[in-house]
Structures are given as structure tokens and as C-alpha cells.
Specification:
Number of strands: 48
Keywords: Glycoprotein, Hydrolase, Protease, Serine protease, Signal
Structural class: alpha+beta
Protein name: Subtilisin-like protease SBT2.6
Number of domains: 4
Radius of gyration: 29 Å
Helix content: 10-25%
Main location: secreted
CATH topology of the largest domain: Rossmann fold
CATH class of the largest domain: Alpha Beta
InterPro entries: PA_domain, Peptidase_S8/S53_dom, Peptidase_S8/S53_dom_sf, Peptidase_S8_Asp-AS, Peptidase_S8_Ser-AS, Peptidase_S8_subtilisin-rel, Peptidases_S8_3, S8pro/Inhibitor_I9
Largest sheet: 10 strands, mixed
GO molecular function: serine-type endopeptidase activity
Distance between the termini: 41 Å
Low-confidence stretches: 1-18, 20-74, 810-850
Length: 860
């Protein structure tokens, strides 16, 4: 491990420890939910005794004086109000108990307490040694001690692509009311509050939010609050990052200020103001808007520029967000790798605190992960979370290079065109080196000082795409800067060879420029250049005769083959433990735009080399997909304020699309061989229930609701989960089970091992007027499925149980289970109802028929 020397002392850089509390206190239980607290180490580790961070789990702490502190318990499915005065009082009592415990065990100078978790979970974070962690583990009342771990950070067009301006915003009063009074919390890298996407409206200023109680930190440089009416809360959490030695105040900022750009980007996608011009390098690329442009933004900074973050800080941020009263929580964050001491994907401090958040009525959207296209790469596992996969939308930025021999080479490049009907001389970087350059390889055009300006000026500079672009030490923006510095008309970047997994994204530049991504087309360009260029016997150029012109790449082309599952988007099947055993729960849950998304950026950010110093960036990831769902969930919450998080999730999933804009099944980007990308039919392991359809989600007809008790039943029924461990985290005994985990009332069905006949139950709730629903099913011939009832009429608010019986009719073949060209297993799958729907509702008073779909997969 690393240590830093400061005078005569050593400070170790390992992360903190988690702990949660139990107590042998009598009688009545209280409802502050306990999960884990973090503890960190302060001793000097030997090579064979490395300090580690651990998670500790405790049972309930009960007050000694029952006359002074009343019970805060609620029924298991009742919404927990963590903002009540009773809970606040009890939370203060818990923090005192945490402090007393540490003081009774350790000398003051041997530990540093980082956080008390007291709103959703009962525990604390503390910096201690492994020996102290072992002492704490043996202390009566301590349930578990687990190591802390790191986490990582996982639009102009997408509102139109999703139909928000015409189909959704008008239902809430227009874009200037879409998301009104809904607070979306962002646990991310902070925010750049001066961006126009986060400005308070002069014409329609925001009013007060009495039920939200978040704090606003003050910028230490400007002495101004980070809040402005649009931004209603802004706090930062860095204690675990600080004691680990990873936090650098000069670049990470000890405030909510975004030093990366990631947090500003996600906040703008979900709730950025409407109609903000996106200008980069003097050109406008449209007008940006969040999904819910009138929603408020609450910032909980726990991620940082270079290292990501620590679970200790993230859990503290989540706790605070829920305590403050956010309605929606966006988490574009996931673990680097599972902690060594965590055995199950569903029970750990991170997922357990989110279970308590959902119990408090908060909808949680989490990025599914960027490990695709390989199977079982998800980093979002639990049924109470909406796990979001990333889609490529219909926008493509294309460009072309026209050569003097008449060939037209396709490429990408968000740039202006060269002058119409005029060709310019092509000069290769390696042919215009200055004598002082030392003849080093400079074909990637990152250093203008080694190129001859007199030979480049007025021409098109030809550069080579090197490995430096792949590892991030070279950028297309720097190529453009080099060309501009040397007076070039424009530039061409040719790809002569590619490494497996190389991804080429369009980049906005201020001068004509193009990237030729196809190796064969790049070789056509190089062959033409070499044939046209005259050289002497030493290889020095005597005359440049190759010419060309660059097209206009500023305007995107819209394709009908969208949406499409992005190559990087993490895939299922979902797993229940870190032995990668299949879970009877479908993940991801839903698909949303996440590729090449325009949104606000922080000029402080350095992670994206092509957008350093810019106020907007176009980047990709499931980090960008999750806030799309968070913003759309805010719109659903605005229309249906009493719906539970599970009801909102159900509405989003059951109304989603599995067909693209051309009415063909959605495709997924996938590798063909080691280098070439191809397109294959997508499955629920790629997109969950399908691509989000915001308009339909506002009126789903039926929902599949679930509460805290249902999630406990899921945990208690899942094989391999220890009932004592479940009770340690939830403080509820396993008195209620579902028979099988797949009986959780989720808006999808996944049966990992289908044998003989299995019956599955679901409970539907009608959230529309009185409706008649007809249920049908379509399945592979290998499996028969029957539903009971086959039709039902439900009054508003009525519920009805449904039973689905699956029976294996024959031996499943490899073609039923494994899809060729893909690593992941292809399930035998079904959708219930006509045209792939679970139920068709027939309005009595309207001659319309609509449908919703329940995705069902089995035998994977």
C-alpha cells in the first residue's frame, strides 16, 4: 500500500471502515434503519498486515429513557418520514450512542469518526486500524464489520426523441411547469452553479419548498451560496476520501463545486432548464433541456475527478439526501469491484441504504454499468432500484472527405466545411517536420512546435490516429488546435489500424476536420497521397499534389434504426452473489438514451480531453441514461404524487418499447470477432423491459406495486442468503417469504432454472377508470404458459391476483438457450398479451385499445 511522508509521520491511504449497531436493550423497537457504518485505519501497516476498511452492522439502539424519546417505529410497508421531528430527535440520540461506543473502546487520538448514519441506517464511519476493527467486531451488539470500497462515475435532442415537448410536458402545463415542485437529488461530482442550465428564471422565479430542508454550502472563493432557487441544496462529502489520502483540495474542491463535469452533466440531463443554446467553438449544436426542466436540483457531492469516490461518503450523501426530502435520487455511480467481505449483491451498505430510501418514498435510478457488451457485467442488482441501460438514439454526426481523384471517403467530424467548390492541398505531418524535431514520431499532430508552419499554412493537415488517442494522452481537439495554430485550412485524421474495443466518437471542432474511422478508407487516402506526392531519392517531398475538401458535419442525420442498445451498456443476467450465480430477477430494468448526450459541463473538468474549458460536452455512458429515467420519473411523480417508487418503476417498465422507430425489434451493438462491431437482436438481458416511453408511462392502466415487506420477502426467499444476515441489515425477521424469489411483485418475470411446471403470482392494481383487461401469452414452443384469470374487469384502485403457470413441453435445445454470436445466454422468453403485451385494456366509454407489457424470461 502507499504511504505519504509528512515530516516524521506516516499517513496511510487506505479507505474507511463501516459499522452498524445492535443493542441488548429491552422491549420496543424503533424504526431508524440500521445498515452499516464505515471505519478507517490510523496505524502504520506492515507489508503483511495491511490496514483495510470494513463495514459494521448493528442491531437497534434503543433509548434508556423511554419517557424522553418516543418510538419512531412504523408498520413495515408504511412510508417512513425521515424528516419528522420525532425521527430527528431519535437520530441525535443515535449519534450520541455512536460517540459513546467509540469513546469507551478507543483512545481519542487513535481513531477519527467520519460520519454517523442515523436517518436511514444505524451506524457510523470511522478511521481505525485492523486491530481496532477486530475489537469493534467482538464488541457486544456489533453485527458485522466489512471493508469500505471505492466507487466510480458510471441534451439537445433526446427530449424530442422521447416525445416530451408534444406528448408529456403539455399534460403538466408545458415545459415551464414540467417537474414543478419535484426535487431530484444527485449523488455525483457536484455542480457548476453558474451554468445557464441551472439559472433561476427571471420571468417565472421559483417559490419556496417547505417540505425540503437541505442545506446550501457557501463557495469559499466567491462567498456566495451554491443555491439559487433552481438549486435548492448543495453539500459535499469527502471525509472518507480525505482520510484515505485521495482527496486533493486544489483540484477536487472542498465544496459542492464540480471539478469534473460529470455531476453538472447528469443534473442537466434530468432537470436542466429548457431551451439553453449549446455553443462550442463558436457553433451552436441545438438547444438543451432536461427531462423535467422545472424540477429542483439538490446536490450531494461524493465523487471526485481522478479517483471516483468511496462508499462511506456515498452512503452519507444518500442518507442526507433522503433526510432532506428529495423525491427522486439519481445515482450515476457504481462499484469498481465488489468488496471482499460482501457475499451477496443485495445485502451491503450501499444497497441496504437504498432499500431504506425506497421505504421513505424515494424513487432511485441507478446506472446499470459500462461493462458491456459482455454478460453479467451489471453493477446495479437490487429489485428496489431502477437499473438503467444505455441506448444509442437516432442522431448520427457524419462527414466526408472528397479527394482529387473523385473518391468520397466517409468519416465523422462535427465541423464546418471547407469553402464550397474548392480543393486544398493535403500535407502529411511526417512530411513537414522541422529539422529541430529530432525526427520523432509526430504524426498524431499534438505538437505544433515541431511542424513547419510555412508548409502547413493554407493547406489541409493530414495526421495519424495513434494509440495515444486510445489512452487519452492525445485528442482530436488538440489536433484542431495544432492545425489552427499552424494556419491550416483544416485537418484529416486517418486510422491505419485499430485495437479491439476502440470507440470513435464525433468531437466538435472549430475548423474543418474529419476522422476517417474505416481502416480500408484510410488506406485509400494514404495511397492517393503517396501516389500524388513527388519525392527525391532521400524521401523528402519535392511537391505536394494530393488535394481534397471536407464536408459539413455540423448537422446530424436522423436514423430510424433507433433506439439501439449501446455497445458499452452492461448486460445481464443479474447475479445474486459474487460467485456469479443467476438471480431470479431481471436486470437491467429499462433502457434510456445514454450515447453521445449533449448537456452542461464544468470548465474545471479535465477528464474529457476534448471538452477542457468548455461549458457543454457530448459524452456517453449509463451515467447519462440514469438521469433520463430520474427526470422522467419526476414527471410521473408530478402527475401521480401518491404513487410509490415501485408504482413509478412499474409504469415506466410496462409501457416501454421493444420496437425501434422503424417498427423493427430493437437491436444491440455487439462484437463480431475481436474488433468489428455488429448488430444483433436485443434481449431483456440487454434492455430489461425495453426503451422508456414517457407519454405512455403517465397512463399505464395497471401497475405492479411492491413495498418494503415485499422486498424483505424477496430477500428471505432467495437461496443462499442467510436469514441472520438479512435481519442484521433490515432488523426484520424472515417471517414472510414469497415461495420463490420470482414471485416478487415486480413488473418483469425471470426464472433462471425452469423445471417441469412452475406457478408464478402477480398482483395488479388498476390506476385508471374501470377497465376490462384481457390477458394472452406468446411463448416458445418449448414452454407452455397459462394465465388465470384470462380476463378481468377492475374498478379504479382495485387489485387482482394473477397466476401464470409455465410448463416445459420438450427438451430445450441450444438454440432455445444460447444465441449465436453473443456471449450472454438467450432465454426462452415471452411477453404476455397480444402484440407482446401483458394486458389489453378496453375503455368502456372510448373506442381505444392500449396495452402494457410484462417481460418474461425463463431457463437461462
Amino acid at each position: 500500500m502507499k504511504v505519504h511522508t509528512y515530516k516524521d509521520s506516516l499517513v496511510n491511504t487506505t479507505p474507511p471502515w463501516f459499522a452498524t449497531l445492535s443493542g441488548a436493550f429491552p422491549k420496543r423497537s424503533y424504526v431508524i434503519q440500521r445498515v452499516c457504518c464505515i471505519l478507517n485505519q490510523t496505524d502504520f501497516p506492515r507489508d503483511d498486515d495491511e490496514c483495510r476498511a470494513y463495514l459494521h452492522n448493528f442491531d437497534l439502539i434503543r433509548p434508556f429513557d423511554h419517557n424522553k424519546i418516543r418510538t419512531t417505529a412504523v408498520e413495515s410497508d408504511q412510508i417512513l418520514d425521515v424528516t419528522s421531528d420525532l425521527v430527528t430527535s431519535y437520530s441525535q440520540h443515535l449519534e450520541t450512542r455512536h460517540d459513546n461506543l467509540l469513546e469507551s473502546l478507543f483512545d481519542d487520538e487513535t481513531y477519527t469518526k467520519l460520519y454517523s448514519y442515523k436517518h436511514l441506517i444505524n451506524g457510523f464511519a470511522v478511521h481505525i486500524s485492523p486491530e481496532q476493527a477486530e475489537t469493534l467486531r467482538r464488541t457486544p451488539g456489533v453485527k458485522s464489520v466489512d471493508q469500505d470500497w471505492k466507487v466510480r462515475k458510471l441534451t439537445t435532442h433526446t427530449p424530442q426523441f422521447l416525445g416530451l415537448p408534444t406528448g408529456v410536458w403539455p399534460t403538466g402545463g408545458g415545459f415551464d411547469r414540467a417537474g414543478e415542485d419535484i426535487v431530484i437529488g444527485f449523488v455525483d461530482s457536484g455542480i457548476f452553479p453558474h451554468h445557464p442550465s441551472f439559472r433561476n428564471s427571471d420571468s417565472e422565479p421559483y417559490g419556496p419548498l417547505p417540505r425540503y430542508r437541505g442545506k446550501c454550502e457557501v463557495d469559499p472563493d466567491t462567498k456566495r451560496s451554491f443555491c439559487n432557487g433552481k438549486i435548492v441544496g448543495a453539500q459535499h462529502f469527502a471525509k472518507a476520501a480525505t482520510v484515505s489520502g485521495a482527496f486533493n483540495p486544489s483540484v477536487d474542491f472542498a465544496s459542492p463545486l464540480d471539478g469534473d463535469g460529470h455531476g453538472s452533466h447528469t443534473a442537466a440531463i434530468a432537470a436542466g432548464n429548457n431551451g439553453i443554446p449549446v455553443r462550442v467553438h463558436g457553433y451552436e449544436y441545438g438547444k438543451a433541456s432536461g427531462m423535467a426542466p422545472r424540477a429542483r436540483i439538490a446536490v450531494y457531492k461524493a465523487l471526485y475527478r481522478l479517483f471516483g469516490g468511496f462508499v462511506a461518503d456515498v452512503v452519507a450523501a444518500i442518507e442526507q439526501a433522503v433526510h432532506d426530502g428529495v423525491d427522486i435520487l439519481n445515482l450515476s455511480v457504481g462499484p469498481n469491484s465488489p468488496p471482499a467481505t460482501t457475499r451477496t449483491t443485495f445485502l451491503n451498505p450501499f444497497d441496504a441504504v437504498l432499500l431504506s430510501a425506497v421505504k421513505s418514498g424515494v424513487f432511485v435510478a441507478q446506472a446499470a454499468g459500462n461493462g458491456g457488451p459482455f454478460s453479467k457485467t451489471l453493477v446495479s442488482y437490487s429489485p428496489w432500484i431502477a437499473s438503467v441501460a444505455a441506448a444509442v438514439d437516432d442522431r448520427r454526426y457524419k462527414n466526408h472527405l472528397t479527394l482529387g481523384n473523385g473518391k468520397i471517403l466517409a468519416g465523422i467530424g462535427m465541423s464546418p466545411a471547407t469553402r464550397l467548390n474548392q480543393k486544398y492541398t493535403l500535407v502529411a505531418a511526417n512530411d513537414v517536420l522541422l529539422d529541430s524535431s529530432g525526427k520523432s514520431s509526430t504524426s498524431d499532430c499534438q505538437k505544433p512546435e515541431v511542424l513547419n508552419k510555412n508548409m502547413v499554412k493554407g493547406n489541409i493537415l493530414l495526421c495519424g490516429y495513434s494509440f495515444n488517442f486510445v489512452i487519452g494522452t492525445a485528442s482530436m481537439t488538440k489536433v484542431a488546435q495544432t492545425a489552427k495554430t499552424l494556419g491550416a485550412i483544416g485537418f484529416v485524421l486517418a486510422v491505419e489500424n485499430t485495437s479491439p474495443g476502440t470507440k470513435f466518437d464525433p468531437v466538435p471542432v472549430g475548423i474543418p476536420g474529419i476522422l476517417i474511422t474505416d481502416v480500408s478508407k484510410s488506406m485509400d487516402l494514404i495511397d492517393y497521397y503517396n501516389v500524388s506526392t513527388s519525392r527525391d531519392w532521400t524521401g523528402r517531398v519535392k511537391s505536394f499534389k494530393a488535394v481534397g475538401s471536407i464536408g459539413d458535419g455540423l448537422e446530424p442525420i436522423l436514423h430510424k434504426s433507433a433506439p439501439m442498445v449501446a455497445l458499452f451498456s452492461a448486460r445481464g443476467p443479474n447475479i445474486k452473489d459474487y460467485s456469479f450465480r443467476d438471480a431470479d430477477l431481471l436486470k437491467p430494468d429499462i433502457l434510456a438514451p445514454g450515447s453521445l448526450i449533449w448537456a452542461s459541463w464544468s470548465p474545471n473538468g479535465t477528464d474529457e480531453a476534448n471538452y477542457i474549458g468548455e461549458h457543454f460536452a457530448m459524452i456517453s455512458g449509463t451515467s447519462m441514461a440514469a438521469p433520463h429515467i430520474a427526470g422522467i420519473a419526476a414527471l410521473v411523480k408530478q402527475k401521480h404524487p401518491r404513487w410509490s417508487p415501485a408504482a413509478i418503476k412499474s409504469a415506466l417498465m410496462t409501457t416501454s418499447n421493444t420496437l425501434d422507430r422503424a417498427e423493427r425489434p430493437i437491436l444491440a451493438q455487439q462484437y463480431s470477432g475481436s474488433e468489428t462491431m455488429t448488430f444483433v437482436p436485443a434481449t431483456p438481458f440487454d434492455y430489461g423491459s425495453g426503451h422508456v416511453n414517457p407519454r405512455a408511462a403517465l397512463d399505464p392502466g395497471l401497475i405492479f406495486d411492491a413495498g418494503y415487506q415485499d422486498y424483505l420477502g424477496f430477500l428471505c426467499t432467495t437461496p443462499g442468503l442467510d436469514s441472520h444476515e438479512i435481519q442484521n441489515y433490515t432488523h426484520q425477521p424472515c417471517n414472510y417469504t414469497l415461495g420463490h424469489p420470482y414471485n416478487l411483485n415486480s413488473p418483469s418475470i425471470a426464472v433462471s432454472h425452469l423445471v417441469r411446471t412452475q406457478s408464478i403470482t402477480r398482483t395488479v392494481t388498476n390506476v385508471d377508470e374501470e377497465e376490462t383487461y384481457t390477458i394472452t401469452a406468446r411463448m416458445s414452443p418449448a414452454v407452455a404458459i397459462e394465465t388465470s384469470p384470462r380476463a378481468m374487469t377492475l374498478k379504479p384502485g382495485a387489485t387482482r391476483n394473477c397466476i401464470l403457470a409455465q410448463q416445459v413441453n420438450c427438451i430445450l435445445t441450444q438454440n432455445d438457450i444460447i444465441q449465436p454470436t453473443k456471449e450472454i445466454k438467450q432465454p426462452t422468453r415471452s411477453s404476455l398479451l397480444s402484440d407482446r403485451s401483458i394486458a389489453t385494456k378496453i375503455h368502456k366509454n372510448r373506442r381505444t385499445i392500449s396495452s402494457l407489457r410484462l417481460e418474461l424470461i425463463a431457463g437461462y
